[in-house]
Amino acid sequence: MPDDARKLYRAERDVGPAPDAPSTLTVHIDGQPRTAVAGETLLQVARRAGCDVPTLCHDERLQPTGACRMCLVESSDSRRLVPSCRHPVQDGLHVQTASARVLRHRQALLALYAADQPEQIVPGSELEVAMRRHGVAEGVPSVTSARAGRPEDQNRFIQFQPDRCILCARCTRYCDEVEAVAAIAVGHRGPETTIVTADMRGLLDTTCELCGGCVDTCPTGALVEKKAAPRQMELASLPTVRTTCGYCGVGCQMDLSVDRDKGQIVRVQSPPPGTTTNDGNLCVKGRFATGYVGHPDRLTVPLLRDRATGQLVPSTWDEALDRAHELLVDAKARHGAHALAFISSSRATNEENYLAQKLARAAFGTNNCHQCAAT
Amino acid sequence: MTNAITEIRDAELLFVIGSNTTEAHPIIAMEMKRAVLRGAKLIVADPRQTWLGGWADLHLQLWPGTDVALLSAMAHVILAEGLQDQTYIDTHTENFEAVRASVADWTPARAEAITGIPAADIAAAARMYATTRRAGIYYTLGITEHTHGTDNVFCLSNLVLLTGHLGQRSAGLNPLRGQNNVQGANDSGATPVFLPGYQRVDDPAARARYSAIWGREVPADKGMNLNQMMHALRDGDLKAMLVVGEDILVSEPDVAGLDRAVSELDALIVVDLFLTETAKQADVVLPAAAFAEKDGTFTNSERRVQRVRQAVPPPGQARPDWQILAALLERSDVEPVRGVATSALTPALIYQEMASGTDKFAGISHARIENEGGLQWPCPTADHKGTDFLHQGGPMRGKGLLVPVNYRPSVERPDADWPLCLSTGRTLYHYNVATQTKREQGLLDRHPGCFVEVHPDDASRYGLHDGGRAEVSTRRGAIEVDVHVSQRVQTGMIWLPMHFSEARANLLTIDAGDEVTGTAEYKVCAAAIAPR
Q: CB distance B221–A292 less than 8 Å?
């Protein structure tokens, strides 16, 4: 990366307590003394203490910006409310996270966000959860957003719905700081401010790697998986199954949202940051390339080579397994076990690889067992 | 990997060699980029200008197949300038003098002549690596897919041992596994030389252990690795094959000869999701369940055993591989799991039988993973927490073995008739032979078909233009592909992705393999190119 960009990141990270500050501090959160470490933020300490401080623009993988103002708290070092996500702890601070003043502010702010949203907020989104938990002030009339989207975007994975965007910039910061491809940015001015690409081109014509991390981090559902978009309002109510990605060797954990009636995977999400090896991230293949699972090309019945016609024809499992076994037994009888080869798969599970080598060794008496992982 | 993936972000130096991480392991690349943003130094060695190379403090664009020369010269600089960790060497390694002697002549100037990397850059890389404490090496198939792949790995482990960059957080030697369960397939014993847990088949005690568990004798014969199998297949020495989930007629090197050999087999049984090129030749095709349709475990690159859980039912009559293999075991009168009726068989019980024969996984079970999340082996007992980084307090084998290595050129090098060096690899948008990814239109939008990357100088020399078509040929075959004129490759080399069965890169590749591992030299062969 360019040196000036690196300096910028370093400089931001260097913001912290003075070098002579004690490394362990005491902060009073809602009247209770709490231990904190120099360099932590009020939000970190408050959340560790179990306080329900809402955030919308916060993602622990990203530099805090204090953009959404949801996490404002009262702090004894400031006359005004401060954004706890980027306010460093100091020894002896007294912090109120749920005072009447804080709650009034929070509900008013949520009312402003709601006024700028379509009538139905996306269930399960961080915005909807915050509104449910903290309440919304009344009397703020609805305003229509002037933000532009990219209706011509031909990519098949990621959809941007500008009327749901609150400009928290989590998506653009994720794209800069984590995926680090800088495909999207906050652009335009005033009420027309929106998430842009260069010349508002479709994502396929940008540096975007289609990882979809912007979708996962979006707190309102303004970004959504394109294929799941028609069902966006019911996504949060679908059952999820935690599993391990089947592509490369990183072993990302992922949560599959499933339509049990249709037996379909509706969308793939990462578990929350900080909980698994992939830290909230997935790549384009893991997140979006599950279409092969329910693809019409899938084999659905065993096939046997018809000895008369030479064609592969459907059979029952018993016929197919009997024939497979008989072919292996015959080959061994005629040519010896060394003429047999068992190629297992580095795509299959441990249990399956174990049974494959057991089949080669215990059933057919050969160590001719390997798989595509000759690396 | 000797380190855990989450340790990458705390590294002070990353030496990435033979790994196009941003495309092949995007999530690990995110961690690497995160480390760089925090101030870590990054050295990338790759014949191509990869995306990660653009982030590097030092990008060593070596000529394909010359890794041993580069790494020997780095070891030379480290020893010549006294940058080695002599205490670590004296305490924890053996064979130091032999390696010192073997790299004595490998000056950076000599390596420059072979690798094409400026001598000053080689020396700078050696100094950066040796003098940074939390320095990790990351590699993948660019190191191993050579006839001298094992030599390459020895060179890397020599660098690690000479500098003592092992046995601590964020410092070690990290092969990034290309497929979801490369680690686990080897762990589970699906290799000719090892039983589960890397217990050697030629060790009578190991054989006795699994013979007792199975109630069947473990054979003592010397089994064939995949590369040897493919040779035996060509020579007509193999008569029957069971192939689970691999399209060998697209994936294996020099596939032209294989088509005929496979058609002459007495028996070919294929277990797969799709009617692949290989399945089309089979006598029996058994429809398998995909990862989201079955239960079990995968083991990732950092040795973490994680659960795979069924989310949706398999289509039609398709079944999980474990049920298919269990049915074949039953027909051979071998209990899939000793003492368990087939009707009561579960992946958890299969794992339990495997783990019962090896200390490495003895403490791991489906039940523990359910409660605690993935566990990293070694994990010898049920109350052991697993092991995040290996070799703490000294190498596991007692003394780390330093291995002297002699540089050997790749088997097939450019000449007058085949003037270009052809290398192959992966792209972000497809996976292996694209059996899965070519069925996702959103990925095809980015990469609809096969292409060859050609340097602008070569493009004008051979009359090619960006977006045109070209025939790429080698001594073994020819394919027609799109032309991408690109500075990502060096003059004199071309590069192809391996993903497309319509333009099989492996009609071109050479089936020469590494002597030890059998891994084929997918990364280097001689080729020619002409416009179409």
A: no
